[in-house]
Amino acid sequence: MKRIKVAVVGTGFIGPAHIEALRRLPNIEVAALCEATIELAKEKAAGLGIDRAYTFDELLQQQDIQSIHICTPNFLHFSQAKAALLAGKHVVCEKPLATKIEEAEELVKIAKESGLVNAIHFNLRYYPLVRQMRVMREKGDLGEIYSVLGSYLQDWLFFQTDYNWRLEPDKSGESRAIADIGSHLLDVIEYVTGLEITEVMADFSTVHKKRLKPLKRIETYSTNTLSAADYEEVPINTEDHANVLLRFSNGNKGSVTVSQVAAGRKNRLNVEIGGSKSNIEWNSERPNEIWVGKRDGANQVLMKDPSLFYSEAVSLISFPGGHNEGFPDTSKQLFKEVYAAVEAGKQPANPTFPTFADGLRELVICERIIESHKKQAWVKV
Ligand code: SOE
């Protein structure tokens, strides 16, 4: 089988996760990686067992590299995705697609004109039971959507000494928690309900208004700390926590909360969708269960038993027989669809595939949320 040669740009946290997922696909070769300097690229390539290391400009010259995964800090996404598309490479970009709406609009236009495969890493769509919830709605099992409650809670920025580029607006953009994880939650809500968010009312809080920035390299997710002299106190003005009221295209309402300072919540997206026939709830830390609530009749917990689920959900189960699908499996399933499209030579037509247009959609919602917080008023999307 002729394997598609892929490169990953940026190997902080999510880049290696892309590499691991790609290495599970038989038709893919992770042939190269790219970092900010050639020295760092070579160091990371050696550590990840990848033969070729480049700077970004060198990477674009490699004719045999057909596709590029952009896993760099947010402020680099636009320029790198644009350059990759113009160099004729298929592109998988981490969210957010860009830090400005007009940049995301330009990427959507270039991608469409190029005919190249383009995807945004909204990987949560690829949990089998997230797909199951969408199909349940499509088949009328929920009835009319009355309400949506959502939360996405983490604790990797809990301590004042927890630091990362996402805390710096020039690298991450004006919003942090909403842009970083709120984008996943809002995408899942529109993806499952089929509704559009039409208006938002947002209220942010920055719990740690000052943080201690490490002056030496230290892994964000580790529990290592440095001596007091190795930290610099810096002001923080991006949100640790945000509450957002939502209005939907069917006239009904909802609310979401995101936080990156919620002790004990490692990476927990929770969504509860109330319908006229039943209520469903899904929690990303228990990804193989859906709670189904009834007004009259027994509530159920739908464990992932392939016989209970629609074929569209079962098709996402990597290991038939009900093996647990975890966070890493979602990226593998997304990339499997990306590279089937690359082999077919065209962008998938199905609406479940997360394209740059979906990345633009989330950026528009995020920008309106920021605007609403600033105005402390409802803002139309
Ligand atoms: C940090 O919040 C992070 O790595 C996000 O950037 C990812 O998109 C999310 O999937 C996991 O948490």
From TrEMBL:
* Domain GFO/IDH/MocA-like oxidoreductase span(s) in chain numbering: 130-280
GO terms (molecular function) for this protein are: nucleotide binding; oxidoreductase activity
Key word Disulfide bond present? no
Please report the stretch or stretches of sequence annotated as the Gfo/Idh/MocA-like oxidoreductase N-terminal domain: 4-117
List the keywords (alphabetical): Oxidoreductase
Which InterPro entries does the UniProt entry name for this protein? Gfo/Idh/MocA-like_OxRdtase_N, Gfo/Idh/MocA_oxidrdct_glycsds, GFO_IDH_MocA-like_dom, NAD(P)-bd_dom_sf
Mind telling me what this protein is named? Dehydrogenase
Which Pfam families has this protein been placed in?
GFO_IDH_MocA, GFO_IDH_MocA_C3
